[in-house]
# Entry
Amino acid sequence: MSDMNSKVPFSGSAAVETYLANGYDSVVGMSSRFAAAICARLLRLQTEEGVTGPIAEIGAFEGRFFIALAHALEPGEMALGIDIFSWPNPEVKDRFEANCLRHGIAPARRVTMKGDSGSMSPSDLTGHAGGEALRFIHIDGEHSRAALAKDLALATACLKDGGLIVLDDMLHPGYPTLMVAVQAYLDANPEIVPLCVIDRETIVGATKFVLCQKSWFERYQARMLDIFADFIWPLGADFEPHWCLVLSQDTRLADII
Ligand SMILES: C[S@@+](CC[C@H](N)C(=O)[O-])C[C@H]1O[C@@H](n2cnc3c(N)ncnc32)[C@H](O)[C@@H]1O
# Structure
């Protein structure tokens, strides 16, 4: 298994690279640096494809992943950090805001939304984002099937054309039933498909799924084959019958002879 010094893809942004190299490990959090670099590069890809606008993270915690995403935005684009901000203590909100400031995300570039995402409406989110639909939503909040189903419905209702939904802690040994919610969601929303799987780095830096609208799948995947060429695990992911890329720091196959 790879360690924190393993090779990660170029994030597409000097500001993200600086944060990943000098700040990421100092902010308490759970997402992997590998996934942060890939998601920042996906934001860059969206920009290149003309998909612009605000983003959100459900479960911003102390800001580790949020800051990386926010650094990948263009001037004028807003990042919403959503969390109940009560775990492990109420001061976590202050730490989130202090970390953002320390690592270059000024208050004008972000909105802190304290509350239960399960009781938020799409207009709560878009209303805090200048009335615009969102182009990227990272879901890393409450890890129950019911909560993930609600967060997926909320994200889908807020998503703009060409938008991406990223799900954390997929296939995590501690949360095996989350996959059940994802499968039910994919069955009920055939216009949404997995775009790629971002492999785990550690048990804490777990696997993420990236979802997109079916109409964008070929367009994004064609670019990703080139952008992430060094990180593509050859067999891909079988979502029966849909296939998508698996991006990993370990692209070996099993020795069978
Ligand atoms: C695993 S942590 C997120 C880690 C963070 N995304 C990172 O990469 O460092 C999960 C977060 O979800 C938040 N959370 C749990 N239930 C929530 C809910 N119903 N609404 C909003 N946030 C929630 C918790 O307060 C916690 O901060």
Summary: The chain has eight helices and nine strands.
